[in-house]
Amino acid sequence: MNPRTTGILFLVAVLLGGLVWYSNHNEADKQEAEAQAKLLFGDLKAESVEWVELRTSDGKDARLERKDGAWHVTRPVEFPADGSNADAIASALAGITSEGVIEEAQGAEVYGLGEGARVVRFRAGGADQELRTGKKTPIGANNYVATGTAGPVYTVASFRVTGLEKSLDDLRERRPLRFDRGGVQRIEVNWVDGGVVLEKKDGKWRMLAPLDTDADAETIETLLSDLVFLRASGFVDAPPPDKEVGLDAPQYRVVLVDAPQEGREPMRHELRIGALLDAQLRAARGAESALYQIPNERFDKLPKTVVAFRFKSLGSFVATDAQRFEISYADPSARSATQVVTITGENSDAGWTTKPEAMAPGLASRLVAELARLDADDIAAEKMGGAELAAIGLAPPHTTLRVFGAAPAGDGEAPELAKLIFGVEQGDAVFAQVPGRETVYRVSSKLAEHVPISLEAFRNRFVAKEPPTEAGAPDAAVQPAPSDDEEEGPLLGPADAGEAQPESP
User: Fold this and answer.
1) How do residues 359-371 score in pLDDT, each as one tens digit?
2) Is 405 helix (H, G, I), strand (E, B) or coil?
3) CA 421 to mean position of chain CA atoms
4) Which of 111-115, 438-442, 495-499 bottoms out in mean pLDDT, i.e. has the lowest?
5) Which domains does the chain have, with CATH numbers?
6) 3-class DSSP state for residue 207?
7) How far apart are CA 504 and CA 354, in angstroms?
8) Residue range 68-77: average pLDDT?
9) 85 and 170 in contact (C-beta within 8 Å)?
């Protein structure tokens, strides 16, 4: 192609591109100008709104004021405001847009903009403003509105004005406690017959009273989460004396103390929960004089025992890190109490296999998963003597269970991820210990559904069953455990090399 022709075509393309860009840019500016022109209050910014007066949906004349960056209800009660709802009202006023203007409008009463109008007054940028909302339009989902008693009549999408309809309780802060859960350093909890003092140091929670011991971080974080999301169902602005609603001796009291900040005292947040007001609500008191009404179901979930706050983790590792486990059982039929039967599990790409007796598919991986997140339900004793431990099957232990990770390259030993010993079952619990700790725990007997805590349980419920033999097919390699009537053979241990059936991954 002729270079001159190419140059001309290039210039034409550039000019056309410029015209398209200019046209699109000009159209966007035009649309933005039209949208701006439809705003009833012009360039009003939500953050510039200083106060708002309106009648609530439950018929109260309310006033909201912004003080030091936070919203407050100042009428008909003095109370912290719900910041989200207050901001939503300010944003609704700043963004309210007309759908059209009524030409040659009749009297205000025709449109419901007279005496019966819903009126919102506010100040922004030092100027007082007013929005009057009247009837719905006969056609379309709109309402008649005006920005004063003598101004034009506009039509506005109904959803824009319904955002201004709030009850007085909607305008009030429903959180009895307002705190940053990550900043809490000390917690005091009291209930009817007990209490605890907890403190975080170096990122770890510890119980200081009534015992000096490790605390259960999960229980504490759950408590803080429940308190962060606690919301009142209602309020009592003229409360009776504290004694009449159980706040002189509360059913539950929580004090949260923030970590100290340079140059100021640590923030302190207190909540007291009293008696039932009815079948579903309890009285509560935060920093305000009014009573909060909180759901009783939220109160019922709060921890109310020292044990609930204590560290009770028996196993805490990542299940997929486990590569081997050993279960050693004291054999009740053995001639010596020191003789044991040991089951070994190995993890590979094909899944878990166990020997000398093969576990049914899926049970070995479930066993490891249960141990990885095992917590005790209760603490039986801080310490027991030898005779007491023997009586509950912990000295010597009925069952010892160890879990190992992957061995490092070379000749290094595999790290031990967990070691537990289990004793006898009593009621709905099994006694357990962690070697190195003197504490004796109770674990729910439901654990036995997934962790074989006795040799009998292992052979009755966890050993792979012999599959049915098809015509012409060889018998399965897995043999059932010997019955008590059969001749007693040598005890099995880790060195006994039986072939294991692979477990489905």
Assistant:
1) 999 999 999 999 9
2) coil
3) 32
4) 495-499
5) 46-171 (2.60.40), 181-309 (2.60.40), 319-462 (2.60.40)
6) strand
7) 12
8) 95
9) yes
Cα 268 to chain centroid, rounded:
23
Query: Token digits for 394?
Result: 């912990």
The pLDDT-based confidence of 485 (bands split at 50, 70, 90) is very low
pLDDT digits (tens, 9 = 90+) for 137-159: 998 899 999 998 777 999 999 99
236 confidence band (pLDDT: 50, 70, 90): very high
Nearest C-alpha neighbor of 296 from the set 241, 252, 237, 243: 252
Cβ neighbours of residue 303 closer than 8 Å, sequence gap 6 or more:
189, 219, 222, 223, 309
Is pLDDT at 447 greater than 90 in this prediction?
yes
Beta strand 291-295 with 324-330 is unpaired
Count CB neighbours of 153 within 10 A.
22
Q: How far from 381 is each of 95, 313, 430, 431, CA to CA, in Å?
A: 65, 15, 13, 10
Neighbour order of strands in the sheet with 49-55: 79-80, 70-75, 61-67, 49-55, 118-124, 127-136, 142-146, 154-157, 98-101
CA–centroid distance for 276 within its chain: 26
Q: Which two tokens stand for residue 436?
A: 């190195």
318 contact partners, CB below 8 Å, separation of at least 6: 372
Strand 234-236 with 70-75, pairing: unpaired
